[in-house]
Each structure stands twice: as structure tokens, then as C-alpha cells.
Amino acid sequence: MKNKIYLDRNKTTYKGNLHLHTTWSDGSLPADQVVEAFKAKGYHFISLSDHEVYTRTTEFNGEDFITLPGMERGGLNLVADKDPGYHFGVLDDPTVEPEQKRFEHLQTFPTPIPWEGDHSPQDLIDKMRAHGNLVVFNHPEWHLTRFEDMVKYDGFFAIEIYNHATEWSTSSSYGAAYWDHALQNGKRVFGTAADDSHEHNPNWNIPEYGGGWVQVQADALTPASIVSNLKEGRFYSSSGPEIYDLRVEDGQLAIECSPCKFIMFKAFPLRGPFVGNFENGEPLTFASMTIEEDMQYIRVECVDFEGKVAWSNPVFVADLLQEGE
């Protein structure tokens, strides 16, 4: 079995949000104020992902902060025997040569309600990719997406597994069950966390800004470097804890993290261990497990004492068993 480093404690990481809204769609703040709100919380990059409006800004970019072009597309389906709805995060991929012209700044699109033909979810995914974009399957639990519908779609690189706005507003934020279902059905997809922030009210007990993010390991704070490492899964997602290191050495998967209550290894089809100092309640900052060759994938969840979670991306065991690099 190969040794492999997935997240390296010695490499730089950048904090970002791939899902938020401004007054270009249904957000309450203009783009410049949204940028300042996230910069104040220590973010390095965001995507101004407004509904059906593509954004491509450079005026907010600097040495310590950038914006990534993108938008959110989707619709609600009123046809009873079809998937009840979808939203897709659309993120410009500067590392590819698109089949069709890239979208322009503030280019607008119709919302398909209900969809059929060219407005089907799969056709929409294919079209977004043809124009040089990555696609994220956003908040499936909020949509009550059917598991059987999700696995029939192809071409999205990640599933939004935590959505902060739907957590505090409708308690429908977690998409990890959809993620596992997709992984168990052979899809190699990553998991993202995001704010999905729309409103700004400093008097709210649970603010929309800064509740969910991705932490990307990259060589530089540039769109190409950030997106390239997102595509390779060199990031983790979080609503609180930090993951410092994730690697396989001598058949052991080991993780280092900020102090947590417990660490769960989510493995399939064989169950992974649930690790915690249950007798004395001392926090954990390290855990490891033995990898079995019969396992399909392993992902790790680090849960802190407030119930907040950091999610690693999957380790695909077959990759570790292949000969050569």
C-alpha cells in the first residue's frame, strides 16, 4: 500500500467561501460590503455566487484576497413525479480550455421552473462545464433531493455537505448522507461547506457570515492555484475545527486537528473507528486507523466540544493499492 499525503501541516492553506449572495440577486448587501465582511473574518477568497447572475470581478483582488468567478443556478420543480428541485454552484475553472465561450460579468440566465429538455439538471451540469466551470451540488437536504436522483447525475465535482444559512433557518444543513450515498455508488466527489449568506443583521444571535467554509492547501493565492487544488481534493471543509494534517503511512490513515471531542473515521463498506477520550473528556488532536484493502473509501469527521465539525475529503483506497505513482 502506498504512502500518500493529502493535507500537509507544513503547507499554506487559504480560507474561502464558495456560496453567498449579494444585491446582484437576493442578498441584502452589495458586493463591496460582502467582500469587506468576509475579509474581516479572515477569509482569503470568495465566489460571488448570485442566483442566475454570473460574476467575474477583479476590482476586489489584492495580495491577501481574491474573488473567484461564478454563480448559482437551479430551480424548483413542480412536477410531482420528478426530482423536487436543485441548485448548482457554478465556479469558473481557469485551468481548462472551455468548449464554449466563458460567461461574462453580470451575464444573466433564466430559472427553469419546472424543467424539461435542455433545462434538466444533467443538461445544465453539462452546459456549465462546457463553458469552463466546475459544478457543486448545493444543499441537497434543503431541497429534499431524492437519493436515487442524485446518483443518476454526473459531472459535479463536489456536494455541499454543510450549508450554514439552512442550518440556522430551517435546520436542513447537512448533506453528508447524500455524500456517502454518492460515494457508495461509485462517484468520486468531494464535500464543501459554505455560508450561503443572504442577509446581514448584526443583532442576530447566529450570523450568516463565517459559519461554513473550505480551507484549501495551495502554493499561491491565485484563481488557478485555488481551483486546481479544489479539483484535486486538497482541502477540507469546516464549521469550526481545523485539520492540520492527513496522510497515509505504512497502512495507517492518520489525522491531526485542533482540539476536538471525538474523531470519526467514516469507512465503507467496513466501519471505521469512533475515537474519543470518553473516560476523562480530554480533547483529541490526533487519531489513526488501519486501512483494510476491502474498504472503498474513508473520510474523517472531527467534532469539537460545541458540536462543530471539520470534514476531510475521501481517501479512495483503490488509489493506494495501484502500482507506480
From TrEMBL:
One of its GO terms (molecular function) is 5'-3' DNA exonuclease activity. InterPro entries: PHP_domain, Pol/His_phosphatase_N, Pol/histidinol_Pase-like. It comes from the Bacteria. Residues 16-77 form the Polymerase/histidinol phosphatase N-terminal domain. NCBIfam families: CehA_McbA_metalo (NF038032). This is CehA/McbA family metallohydrolase. It comes from Paenibacillus roseus.
